Amino acid sequence: MAALAGLFADGRIVDLVLLLVAAEAGALWLWRRRAARGPTWADLLPNLLAGAFLLLALRAALAGMPWIWIAAPLTGALLAHLADLARRFGAGGVERQVGSGGELERRPV
């Protein structure tokens, strides 16, 4: 139990979660490559980056780093999130998931 507490105390737990995020990205890439379906990198990247930046901000906070090391990844997360929103809702459409395959369909607003 002390080892787990140590992982949280200095933020190293976030490193493990970031590895899981990277593994998820790799699995989605393989799925897309082999099945020729699923989300594209353009669809995934802003979302993955926003999450990774939030995790980096958490790690900096848990490690007791100065505020700038927390604010910088939070700013990155905001920019990635805005890019994701622009991609999803730009060009006068809204994406929604249809079918069991997870395909995205553009619908006018």
TrEMBL record:
This is Uncharacterized protein. The keyword Membrane applies. It comes from Salinarimonas soli. Keywords: Membrane, Transmembrane, Transmembrane helix. The chain crosses the membrane at residues 12-32, 44-61, 67-86. The lineage of its organism: Bacteria, Pseudomonadati, Pseudomonadota, Alphaproteobacteria, Hyphomicrobiales. It comes from the Bacteria.
